[in-house]
Structures are given as C-alpha cells and as structure tokens.
Design a protein that fits this description.
alpha/beta, TIM Barrel, eight-stranded parallel β-sheet, five-stranded antiparallel β-sheet, globular
Length: 551
C-alpha cells in the first residue's frame, strides 16, 4: 500500500511511509469525525468567521486593533506533536487558531496528511500559515555556494581570506533569489495551490536565526574594507549593512514568489520573521548596540523588507531572565511599543505577532523550571497564563505563537499551551475585553522612566517606554536587573474626562497579594488584589466603581 522514502527535516533524516493520498485523506477525515467531540455547528461557524475576519483586518484602522489569534512553532513533524489534526480539532471546538503547517526543506517529501486538512480549510475559507527554518541557510550549507570564489561567495570572507559559514551582506542578489525559488517551486506547493487556490491569507514564517555578519564585524570583513575603507562611523556602517540586507532579503522573497505559480497566492502572502524587529534588550546594557541596526531616521531595516515580525517574549534558558525580576520579558517588551507603532503607522497591514516561551527545556541543565525549583518556586499553568496575558495586553499582537522544540509533544506541554488558547478565547467571549483590546489606549507612567537607560540614541530618548503602574508592594527605585517585582500591572483607557473608563490587568508571579495599592495616572490610587493567574478590573471615573471581572 505504500513505500518508504527519505524525509529530510532540518538537520535530520529518517524513514517515513508515504501512503496513497486519496485513501489517506478519506481515513484522516473519518478519524477526525470519530475522535472529536465538537462544539455546536453555530459555535463552529462563528469561530471560523471570527478567525478569518480578524486575520484580514488591517493592524490599525477605524475598526481598532484586530482581536488576537493563536499559533505555535511546533508543527507536529513527529507523532504526538501540534500537527494539523490537533489544530483542526481545537478549531472545531470553538478555539481561535490560525492554522499552521510545516514548511518543508527543498526536496523533502510532503506529509500527505496536509492535503486532507487543506481541503477542509478550503471549504471553510480559513487563512493558513507555513512555519519554516532559515530560508537563507542553503547559502551556507550547499557546496555550490559555499565553495564559490571569494568575490562571488554569499558568505563572510574574513581578513585572512577564509570563508565563514554565515551569510554576508556583500553576496550576490542573484544567489539569494535563486535560493528563494528553490523553497517554493516544488510539487508540494504546486499541489497545495491546486487544492486551495484562494486562501484569504497565507503566512510564511521563518525562525530567522541563521548566522549573518553583524555590523560591528564589518572591519573583520575583507570585502567591506576593500569597498568602504576603515574610516566609517558606526552609524555609517549600520546604514551600509542595513541597506544591503534590505536588498538581499527582498531578492530572497522575490525568488520565493517566483516559485509560486498562483497569482492569488502571491497577492495574499506575507513574510514574517522571528525577531526581525527592535531588540527588547534595548538599553539594558551597552552591548545591546552590537545587535541593532538602529540609525537616525530608521528604527532597524527589517520593517522595510519583512511584512511582519514574531517578537520573542521569552524567559530564555541561557540567561538570567525570569518572569519575576526587572530583567524580564514584561519589562523588555515595553521597549518595543514605539517601534510597533512606527511600523504600523507606516504600513497599516504590518503583521506584528508575539512568540511566547517559558524557558522549559528539560534536557538542558539550564532549564528554567529547574532554575525556579532551585529557588523554592513552582511553575504552574496558572503562573504561565498570568505571564502570557500581561504580554498580550501590553503588546496586543495579531497572534500569540507558543514556542516548543520541534520534537515536543502535546502530551507533555498541552496544559501550558491551552492557557494561551483560553486567554485569547476570553477576549472573544467578553464584549468588554474585546472593546478594550480594539480601542483601549495603554496608560503611560510618565512619572518614572524605563529602568533600561544604557546608550539610548538621542533621537529615541523621548519615546514612551514605561507603562508599569506603581505598586506599593514593589521595591523603591532605582532597580537592579535581579530585583524582584512582586506585582506587574498595566491599564488601558477609553474615553475622556468624566467618561473615562479603564481596564486594569494585574498579576503576581510568585504569590497572591491582597489590597495592593496601584497609582493609576489620570485617576489616583486604586486598591485591588493580584494573583499568579492574573486579574482583570474595570473602573469607571463617573462612578468610581472598581469591578473584578470574573473571566
């Protein structure tokens, strides 16, 4: 009934049976119908309409901000992962996911399961996405590029004339375009275009982590010195490098579009890059500048070429970031709001999403949950939910995308993922939350400044970067990076003067706190409770009534 072939997957290869597509499609759909307990047809139809509507709205406009959707980095490449069948079951049960598929390597066999699911999504007119690796990696892995002579090589040529396995901004546009086409001009994508010729939206998402020459390495590059010399200022170097990246990535994406045959697909496709944005470590320590291409008049070059970014909201397993200290994703994310506003003001369809990770990597010694345990803490799903919701309401992204390793399983991590799903669904279930998500204005705390103030460019010093409400249980400023913050609180405001109303969100990672006194700018002292899972409060100025929303 089938045969075996090699399925290449990133850096791995293994044997996987490939079955007759039509037969597999029938079997697959039958399993879906038999194994799932679905919501009512009306709820299902409403969910489908909401997913499609919110995915197509502009990021800014008269309808306010689009309500968020849910995604994942794990594509279910191995059994038990977050595969299309799992996603479809959640959607059938009324949850707001934007479906995702594995983006195969060139030459990799497509998973035949995709074809059955794509047929279902076509009937429902759902948006779809493909989650991939670094598309430019071929330039540093394929010998046909790696072994090119120095002046033609797409990789870094150091001062000794050696080739390094990281892409250079001085490569040829032709090579980048050719590599782009290799990713999409294949039987798998051609079949999908036939099966689903008119998706309303298609996202191509790259993890965007391939090694590339950084601007501070320019004086170690033979080709840079030969062309530009040694006397350039840092801003001049960053402009040169940034302009080069804009050109090369534009050619990569043009090549990928060349490989797509459907004009409808081409017109509805967005390229989204992980961390193709202003770094959240902006101002945290002087070294942040090494990882940024910000120059006067340009907040990073990436918005000039990518259609959007997936910004990390991570407690990394490789550094001391946590969810309860000043060095936290919550504090770092406040650095990125002005850049988000700038990019979306320039391009009202700019796709800003948020990637979430708790640093859980049990196979590593620096696993974040193990770190918390060493401090006498536990890391519950409730604590995770409180943490995620803070980032959501601070950034209000188009989509919240959880990160887990490619081999992770639903069985191991679903309890955490479903906290994200529930946090997003809450916004659809509550008219009040929906209203504030769409139209609320984040309340600035102008009395204090952001604690990260190292080497801030002069043209960005006046940007608003501090939104944490003062809480009487938090330590007195100034703060150090490892200082514990007991309560994290923000507020959104709608209306003016006596008609003002606020949505407050507060959470406390490590414990429950009662009668916390928050200072709400434009109002005064507000007294409320804070818990690890997070609490919503609604306040109206004309009545001074503070209501804890039981959501």
């Amino acid at each position: 009934m089938g045969w075996k072939s090699t399925w290449e997957m990133d850096d791995l290869s293994f044997e996987k049976p490939i079955f007759d597509i039509k037969l597999l499609s029938v079997i697959f759909l039958c399993v879906l119908l038999q194994e799932s307990v679905y919501a009512s047809d009306s709820i299902f139809e409403k969910t489908i309409a909401e997913i499609t509507r919110e995915s197509l709205l502009p990021s800014v406009g008269e309808n306010g901000r689009p309500l968020p959707l849910v995604g994942h980095w794990n594509r279910g490449q191995l059994a038990g992962g977050y595969d299309p069948k799992y996603q479809f079951n959640l959607i059938k049960n009324g949850h707001h996911l934007l479906p995702w598929f594995h983006f195969p390597m060139p030459g990799e066999k497509w998973n035949a399961d995709y074809y059955a699911v794509i047929e279902e999504y076509r009937k429902l007119n759902l948006p779809i996405s493909f989650i991939g690796t670094q598309w430019e990696r071929i330039l540093s892995e394929d010998n046909s590029y790696l072994e090119l002579e120095e002046k033609l090589n797409p990789n870094v040529v150091n001062l000794a004339g050696s080739i390094e396995r990281k892409v250079s901004p001085f490569g040829r546009a032709k090579d980048w375009r050719d590599v782009g086409e290799r990713w999409t001009n294949n039987e798998g994508f051609l079949t999908l275009q036939d099966l689903y010729p008119n998706p309303p939206l298609i996202l191509f998402v790259s993890n965007n982590e391939h090694k590339k020459m950084r601007w501070h390495e320019a004086l170690l590059s033979r080709r840079f010195i030969e062309k530009y010399g040694l006397l350039n200022t840092p801003n001049e170097i960053k402009k040169i490098i940034g302009d080069k990246w804009i050109d090369l990535y534009a050619n990569l994406f043009d090549g990928m579009l060349d490989g797509i045959k459907s004009e409808h697909w081409k017109g509805n496709l967005k390229f989204i890059g992980y961390n193709a944005f202003l770094t959240g470590s902006f101002g945290r320590w002087p070294g942040w500048l090494k990882y940024s291409l910000v120059i006067p008049g340009r907040i990073e070059p990436w918005s000039h070429v990518w259609d959007g970014a997936s910004v990390p909201y991570y407690t990394h397993d490789w550094n001391k970031s946590s969810d309860f200290t000043v060095m936290s994703p919550q504090i770092q994310a406040m650095n990125q709001l002005f850049a988000q506003d700038d990019f979306q003001r320039t391009n009202r369809h700019y796709w800003f999403e948020m990637s979430v990770w708790d640093g859980n990597s049990p196979e590593k010694q620096q696993d974040k949950q193990a770190y918390y345990k060493s401090l006498g803490q536990s890391y519950s799903p409730d604590r995770y939910k409180g943490y995620v919701k803070f980032g959501m309401w601070l950034l209000r992204p188009r989509l919240v995308r959880e990160f887990r390793g490619w081999s992770d399983t639903v069985n191991r991590t679903e309890n955490y993922f479903l906290q994200i799903v529930d946090a997003v669904d809450d916004i659809y279930r509550s008219d009040l939350l929906s209203k504030f998500w769409r139209y609320g204005e984040l309340v600035k705390n102008d009395v204090l400044e952001h604690p990260y103030q190292s080497m801030i460019p002069s043209e960005l010093k006046e940007k608003s970067r501090w939104f944490l409400l003062d809480a009487n249980v938090n330590p007195i400023r100034p703060w150090r990076l490892n200082d514990e913050l007991k309560v994290f609180s923000i507020a959104l405001c709608i209306g003016e003067n006596k008609d003002q109303e606020w949505l407050l969100y507060t959470y406390s990672p490590l414990d429950e706190y009662k009668d916390v006194k928050l200072t709400l700018p434009g109002y005064g002292i507000v007294e409320l409770n804070s818990t690890p899972k997070g609490e919503y409060y609604h306040l109206k100025k004309n009545s001074d009534e503070l209501i804890n929303l039981k959501i």
